[in-house]
Structure formats: structure tokens, C-alpha cells
Amino acid sequence: MGNGIERPLDLLNASKGKEVIIQLKNDKQFVGILKAFDIHINVVLDNTKEMINGEVKKSFGLTFLRGDTIIFISPSST
């Protein structure tokens, strides 16, 4: 691939320090700056916001999300 993404974790490495969107199994969606992750896809976000229908519901700051609750992680389009 021309974008340097050859393995799944390459996308997370490329997204460190950038805003990502995370969808959880319980239909909650969070947006924040990806600070860290591990092989279990546990993630730490900063400036975390819970989003509902594209609007901020709550702000959390520094947040840990368990990998087994995550459906997807996407780089933010902003």
C-alpha cells in the first residue's frame, strides 16, 4: 500500500497524536486524541468527547477505553 499501512496496528501508529473516532459495542461513540494503545487495542484518548448524532453529549478529558468494547477506530475527517 502506498500509504505505509501494511498491518492493522500501522493505522493506529499513524493516528497517534491525532483525532480518532471510536465506536463501542453499546452504541456509544467517542472522539478524542489517540495518546496510546496496546496489543489488546485498549486505548487512551485525550480531550475525549461522547458524541450523539454528531453533537457532543459529554466531555471527559483523559480516558481509557477497553479494547474488547470497541467495534471500530477511524481517523477523524476533521
N to C succession of SSEs: HEEEEE
Low-confidence stretches: none
The span between the termini is 23 Å
Shape category: globular
Strand count: 5
CATH architecture: Roll
The rounded Rg comes to 12 Å
- Give the strand order of the largest sheet, numbering strands 1, 2, ... along the chain: 4-3-2-1-5
Average pLDDT for all residues: 92
Count of discrete alpha- or pi-helical segments spanning 4 or more residues: 1
Provide the number of structural domains. Answer: 1
The major sheet is characterized as: 5 strands, antiparallel
Helix-and-strand structural type: mainly beta
* Residues in β-strands, percent: over 45%
Describe the structure.
It is a single chain. Strands 4-3-2-1-5 form a 5-stranded antiparallel beta sheet, with helices on one face. The relative contact order is 0.27. It is mainly beta and 78 residues long. The model has no long low-confidence stretch (mean pLDDT 92). It contains 1 helix and 5 strands.
Topology summary:
Blueprint: H1 8-15, E1 19-24, E2 29-37, E3 43-52, E4 55-65, E5 70-75
What can be said about this structure in brief?
The chain is mainly beta. It is built from 1 helix and 5 strands, in the order H-E-E-E-E-E.
Keywords for this entry:
78 residues; mainly beta; SH3 type barrels; five-stranded antiparallel sheet; 54% strand; globular
